[in-house]
Amino acid sequence: MAGIKAIVFNTIFLIILNVVSANVQVKTNSGVVEGIEVKSILKDEKYYSFLGIPYGEPPVEDLRFMPPKPHKNWEGVLAAKKEKKPCAQFNFAIRDTSEYGFYGVEDCLHLSIHTPKIPSTSQNVNLPIIVLFINEQFRVMPNISKEFGPDFFMKEGVIIVSVNHRLASLGFLSMEDDLLPGNNGLRDVILALKWIKDNIHNFGGNPNKITLMGQQEGAVLVEILLHSPKAKGLYHGAILQSGTVWNSLYFTGKARERAIEFSKQMEEHATTTTFMLKRFADVPAEKLLDSEHMAVHADEARAIQRGIIPFGPVIEHDHPEAIITKLPEEGLVNIEVPIMIGYTSREALEANKNFFVRPQFLTYADRDFLVMIPIRAGFHFTVNDKIYFRAVKDIKDFYFDEGYVKNSKPGEYITYMSDVLSFYPIDYAVRKYSKESKSDVFYYTFDFSGELNNRKIDALKEARNYDGTWGATVGDDLCYLFVCKKIKKAYKEAMEQNDSEEMQVLDNMVRMWTNFAKTGNPTPPGDKFTWKPATPENKECLLINEELQMKTKLHEDRVKFWDDWIKKYKEMAKDSVVKDEL
């Protein structure tokens, strides 16, 4: 009996010992954090995760709508073993998701760190860092550590950090004054980057090799920081995926008007900042976020031919704490770090998936054609004037085989929408940066279609028409860099194959992205491929598919069309409006 007890005791002891050995503690300037050892999807690999480390005080009560304050130091050991909830947000039905409506919390200023190695007294570790930002329209943010596994980056010796920051009105409400200038969501990020720079060496990171990486509006956030003196010195490179600050969707102005209208629609009418903050102080976050659409008139976007985000980054008035005080186009670009920038070949496929399910709806798309001016061009049309319809005809004649949107060819409409929403603004950014920036610009197009194209596969699962569904939609490239946990099984199946095209594409991308984090060059000397930086003359662009190919002047006919179209109608504008002559 005593022998059995001894065996049971020893077994329990070993189990406890194994659990404890899976934890790891790191001392930071804020206090000690305890993370966990994680088994990688890759055989015999592991890494360490520290989840939900606070970098800012909870932005609640008197700190709601206010700039963030650094988190106070803590006593004892902070458990960082579970991912915290993301910042409060209202998830709208842009695409299939398990979370619709309100979710998240206001106490959300946390960051998570994944590292392949921890320094010890016998081992000095000095790894590059990628800080990852993903959000959609500054309104929705995934729980990054839960949805995107860092396994492949861990294998290559690159630390991944993700940052929670405030979204929508909670992060970007602005009255255009000193008390409420807007952009507190950006201030959150800058505070987090300062914490990372001061503490990342404790996790094996090199504070002088920090690359910012953003996808969709996460890329826009990163790009704004490139233009902000407040973020200078906090990063050493940038990766911009499927988003650019040059898109007409951003910096639409009227932030104060929008805030006042918002308060009016909320029945908390306020015309001064102090009164607005007082009226909004006790309004539940769910009510605030669910009501934001009321700040924008239903016909406003159509009237100015630009998309409108109710509450996003703003150009601030000139004050000591301003993040950005002028539009990027108001002066020469002065960026001193290397940039990777690109897009997926069928960016708008997901957002327009209903046209593949019900192609007959394209009849309405033709009848009430959506005109979008892709960049801030300084003009808009008077809707329904003859000249407006002439501009519509120009677009239709170029993009549609017979000059109208046909039910049988949704692919033509996807090309148009992809160009105005993503490709042309990104190509425009490449031209600006390659001409004016002091560092290299690496331009890419992700075109591969395979079993890891998670968002494209989801978008087309009920499709009846597959015209124009080649290539990749927005976000598909992320699943060739990270382990998209929703399709984790697909990675295991791909890795078991000797000739998996998916793994070939993934290996190439991870190698280039991590090389960029390490050296500022995705294909440094000695690499088996050379990704040439873009030049203003040729716009060298890497086409990512089963094989890597360098292209020059990609889709130049489409670029020229928009260059000419914008120039033509801008010259006709009077007081920024293009309208019929009386």
CATH topology of the largest domain: Rossmann fold
The CATH homologous superfamily of the largest domain is termed: Alpha/Beta hydrolase fold, catalytic domain
Mean pLDDT: 93
Question: What is the strand content?
Answer: 15-25%
The number of distinct helices, counting runs of at least 4 residues, comes to 18
Work out the count of structural domains.
Answer: 2
What would you call the shape?
globular
Give the radius of gyration. 25 Å
Q: How would you characterize this protein structure?
A:
Strand 17 and strand 18 form a beta hairpin. It contains 18 helices and 19 strands. The chain is 32% helix and 16% strand. It is of the alpha/beta class and 582 residues long. The strands form four sheets. Strands 1, 2, 3, 4, 7, 8, 10, 11, 12, 13, 15, 17 and 18 form a 13-stranded mixed β-sheet that branches. The chain folds into two domains: 330 residues, Alpha/Beta hydrolase fold, catalytic domain (Rossmann fold), CATH 3.40.50.1820; 227 residues, Alpha/Beta hydrolase fold, catalytic domain (Rossmann fold), CATH 3.40.50.1820. The longest helix has 27 residues.
